[in-house]
Each structure stands twice: as C-alpha cells, then as structure tokens.
Amino acid sequence: MKYFSPSKNAFFDDTLNTSIPTDAKTIDPTVYANLMAQMASQAVELTADGNGNPAVVARDSLLSLAAAQQQRASDLAAACQSAITAGFKSSALGQPNYYGSLQTDQINLQRMFATSQTVRPPSSYPIYCSPTPM
Which candidate, 40, 45, 36, 12, places its Cα nearest to that of 26? Predict the structure, then answer.
C-alpha cells in the first residue's frame, strides 16, 4: 500500500518502508501513478495541499532561494518592529504598569534618561507613554 506524509513531503510503501510517519495518508494507486508520471516530467515538484494530500506544483511557481530569503527577511523585520513597538509591563512602581513603546515613547524615554544624566537632574520625571490598556 502507498502512503503520503505531508510532514516528510514524501511517499512511503509498506512493502519497502518499515516505519511509516503517523501523519501518512493512504494514497489510491491511480492517484499515485498520476503524480509519479507528472513528476517524471521534472517540470513539477511534489508538495502537500491544504488538506495534507499530495499535489504537484509547477517549478516556476516556486520562489527562488533569493526571493524566499528576501521574503523571510521582510517577515522578520516586520515581526521585530511589531515587538519593539508593542510596549511592555513593569512592576518597578509596586504594581504592574503598561508602558507604550511607539517611536514617540522611545524618544521621550531617551530624553528623560539624558536629562537624568545632567549635572542638575530634575526632581521628578514625568514621562508620557502612549495609553494602551494592559
């Protein structure tokens, strides 16, 4: 019997393979033969569809390595920016307080820090942070 594992993106045959992945699905022999014939053309590549079934995609529809790296770098930069501006909680004042960290908030905190390092620092530090509930 033939199987397809979406996690391994591979076919398995119970007469050849002693270990079949737990996510493997039984594949109809006709479907298996059709997929193998399509892959023989080398113009397609095996993948799993949204339901974990085997499917083929045209090789030219796949991202190049450079395009995939660019997309990943862009995704990471967006996630990093989101984390930086998400704000933070601190219990330094005795109870949890939320502090915004939008660009304006970061500039305000930098100014307060710089002011605190002067010869005559202020006696209080009113810091504005964007209001966001905890």
Answer: 12
48 inside domain: yes
Q: Residue type for 16, please? A: L
- Model pLDDT for residues 26-81, shown as the tens digit of each residue: 999 999 999 888 888 777 888 899 898 898 888 776 667 787 889 899 999 999 98
Do 99 and 132 share a structural domain?
yes
Residue with tokens 């500039």: 107
Our CA dihedral for 130, 95, 82, 114, rounded to 10 degrees, sits at: 60
Measured between alpha carbons, how far is 99 from 95 in angstroms, rounded to an integer? 13
Domain range for residue 35?
2-61
The structure's pTM equals 0.43
